[in-house]
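Sample intake sheet
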Amino acid sequence: MDTTEFKPGDLVQVKSGGPIMTVEQVGKTAMLEEDAVWCVWFEKVGTRQVAQNKTFAPIVLEKVEKPRTAYSAAVVRA
């Protein structure tokens, strides 16, 4: 799988689980020129929603459908 499978705005999740994330950017890493997908998501920290971001190798991600509920699940950290 390569970065052409993903585009900014896609909803993705790590194949092993975790929060639903939004693809922010796709391309190559600066240091190693490896395929990469930049993602952003929100985590609840106390009473606040905090933006998180991380770069992933495309092989670990899969596209997901938008949740049908009026709310989305969040990762909670104390």
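Comment: The longest strand covers residues 35-45. The mean pLDDT is 88.
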